[in-house]
TrEMBL record:
GO terms for molecular function: actin filament binding. SUPFAM superfamilies: AraD/HMP-PK domain-like. This is Class II aldolase/adducin N-terminal domain-containing protein. It comes from the Eukaryota. The lineage of its organism: Eukaryota, Fungi, Dikarya, Basidiomycota, Pucciniomycotina. InterPro entries: Aldolase-II_Adducin_sf (IPR051017), Aldolase_II/adducin_N (IPR001303), Aldolase_II/adducin_N_sf (IPR036409). PANTHER family: ADDUCIN, CLASS II ALDOLASE_ADDUCIN DOMAIN PROTEIN (AFU_ORTHOLOGUE AFUA_3G09800).
Length: 307
């Protein structure tokens, strides 16, 4: 029998545009309130209920008193979190009356014992003011670090640094935290690393080096083999940046330990991190987070703070 030609099975033509996996839906900032703080709460239908942001003061003397209470409360908060480490640790805040002066804690006083009456006013030359504020010694390293940053970043009002447990543990790696959680987005494109340990800070050069590492916009830094440092347009902002970063260093250490056993970690992608940071990093939002803690301290310990 003669062979019979058999046509091959027809092959379906490939679609002109292959189907792609659907991308996860993204949120759009343009559809949200222009005021980042207003994105975080809901009031009544009439629009008369609001969450307050950073307060404004017409009188610099009145603001000075508010700054001192906030500063004392921030130290009490740090004491509550167990950040005390002997003579180490300091927060400074520019004086509203004389912006080239700043308020600071005295050296050798536990954070939980700092109150309005033992805060020191520091002159531009780095000395305790002769007549205004407590007549107590201040931390020399604190002056060197903070004065250099205040000079380099004139828009910054408050600077904080201490040797918190998880912050200094993570600092030994000399690398930033990963953006692993929603609250970590506070540090997205907002966290510097000072990759050097020049010994205990006793000379001006180290203060300048830290200021340069921070650059023109970062509000937080990891100081390798040392600890954390944070900035703020208010004391509350500075204090919250610090406490949140210390907790995130703990999270990072826990995640790294789990990942070492083979569990995969997932980092938030840049687009989602940037979207979230656009709200979280607003100074009014950071202050509002801090206010929850500082108001509680004032409620609990106002009788001590105001002495």
């Amino acid at each position: 029998m003669a062979p019979i030609a058999i046509d091959p099975e027809p092959v379906a033509a490939a679609p002109a545009h292959p189907l792609k996996a659907a991308a996860a839906p993204k949120q759009d900032l343009s559809k949200l309130a222009a005021n980042p703080l207003a994105r975080t709460y809901r009031g009544n239908k009439a629009g008369t209920i609001h969450m307050e942001g950073i307060p404004e003061f017409a009188d610099p003397l009145e603001k000075r008193e508010w700054v001192k209470v906030q500063l004392a409360a921030a130290f009490q908060y740090w004491g509550k979190l167990g950040y005390g480490e002997g003579l180490s640790g300091h927060i400074t805040c520019r004086d509203p009356v004389w912006p080239d002066h700043y308020w600071m804690n005295p050296i050798g006083v536990h954070f939980s014992s700092v109150k309005v009456s033992n805060l020191c006013l520091v002159t531009p030359e780095g000395y305790v003011h002769d007549t205004i504020g407590a007549q107590l010694a201040i931390n020399h390293a604190g002056f060197i670090i903070h004065s250099a940053i205040h000079k380099a970043r004139p828009e910054v009002q408050a600077i904080g640094h201490c040797h918190s447990l998880h912050g200094k543990a993570w600092s030994v790696f000399g690398r930033p935290i990963d953006i692993l959680t929603q609250d970590a987005c506070l540090y997205y494109d907002n966290l510097a690393v000072y990759k050097n340990f020049g010994g205990i800070v006793l000379a001006p050069e180290e203060g300048k080096n830290i200021a340069e590492a921070l650059g023109p916009k970062s509000m937080a830094a990891i100081l390798q083999n040392h600890g954390l440092l944070t900035l703020g347009s208010t004391i509350g902002e500075c204090a919250y940046y610090f406490s949140n970063l210390d907790r995130l260093c703990k999270v990072q250490l826990m995640v790294e330990a789990a990942a070492a056993s083979g569990i995969k970690k997932v980092v938030i992608d840049d687009e989602d991190a940037a979207f979230t940071a656009a709200t979280l990093q607003n100074p009014h939002n950071v202050y509002a987070n801090a206010r929850v803690e500082l108001d509680l301290i004032i409620e609990e310990r106002g009788h001590i703070l105001l002495k």
